[in-house]
Amino acid sequence: MLSDSRTSAGVDNVTIHSKMRIYEVRGQRMFCLLTSGNLSITQSVISLLERDIQEAKEDPNVDTLLNQTNFLETVHYVGQRLRDVRRMHAEALDRAGISFNSNFILGGQIENQPPEIYQIYPEGNAIHASTESPFLQIGELKYGKPILDRVFTSTTSLAEAAKLGLLSLDATARSNLSVGTPFEMLAYRVDSLEVRHRIKFEANDSYLRMVCDRWQEGLIQLVHDIPELDVLKQ
Amino acid sequence: MLSDSRTSAGVDNVTIHSKMRIYEVRGQRMFCLLTSGNLSITQSVISLLERDIQEAKEDPNVDTLLNQTNFLETVHYVGQRLRDVRRMHAEALDRAGISFNSNFILGGQIENQPPEIYQIYPEGNAIHASTESPFLQIGELKYGKPILDRVFTSTTSLAEAAKLGLLSLDATARSNLSVGTPFEMLAYRVDSLEVRHRIKFEANDSYLRMVCDRWQEGLIQLVHDIPELDVLKQ
User: How many Å apart are CA B100 and CA B89, to the nearest integer?
Assistant: First the structure.
């Protein structure tokens, strides 16, 4: 799970907001929620999710992110909260010609159930990753997709996936000003049911810089090593 | 100059149309025009350009792509023809909620003037490439931009540029069904003032396949060779 932290409402109004939230009951369940799109919408949804968690401390009958029986129910619960926010704001946004474009990725694991990753659409419906489509992206996704399409598979190791994620996000940040560091990463090991590796990469982070520099040099060399078209040889 | 050949009006209506036109007066001037966006619009513009060239055979006072005094005037001429088509169709398209999204790239050279590349916007205005921004893209551009951003510079050789173009377009074709082979390439050598290398790459072209296979293998190796994050080492 990897996100950038840049939010823009026009190029003269760029701010830094984390787009990653983690909710866990250590040893029992762990969720990581990534958000994209309109910040006021995503913040409202997060507020509702966290209000429910607070309320459930008094009243265990309140539905929360942390007390559903399985992952799909948890996704439905988040989708329902997204619809609640939509109901509140959609009409006014429509009138202003602003689209309701907030997408979420929810990844994690519940007890001994399999780990899952879902993308939740602005309408509250959802899709999950699979062996054939092993990654999900939201937000400014096109720049960073080719490297994942070419290299990322369902058998890619966690450490390789971390490199690929950073390269994909760095490609996006280079091509689009609205995406930028700090990058936040959660590297979750299946069945650990706890957050061990939550890592924040600032622009000058030595690992991030090394990965990107090696990549840049490697790509130039790689293109150079491919034989030239015969007719274009000097 | 490089283009794909796929035109789609929905996934159930995908056809193959060349998006590259070449106009030359051998030894005097050479232009290559790439098109993107609504096919009926780009075809209309092309028709007007070619009608003018025909008419100028009878009446040399007719403005054409091939008789302007310099490149900028040529770009203005194309922009004017684009506006003519816009005037004809914009109202009907607006009513149907279809945006007038046709973009053009015009590259080439006139006599002993410097070679140039311009992007012409749907409104008929234009920008040109420069030392700092040495490439232009139109259409489905995001997937293929990172590799150009990382590797392509104003000093890249023609043969390297050809490889980079194929890799950029192949990245786009892999990530987006609406982009596909055959790819058409014009590799123009400055001051030649003629078309020597116009090359069509079908999906099974041996050079295209070799470039893409080497790239795929190289990328996997490159990611693999980058050191892992310490905390994720097994």
Answer: 9
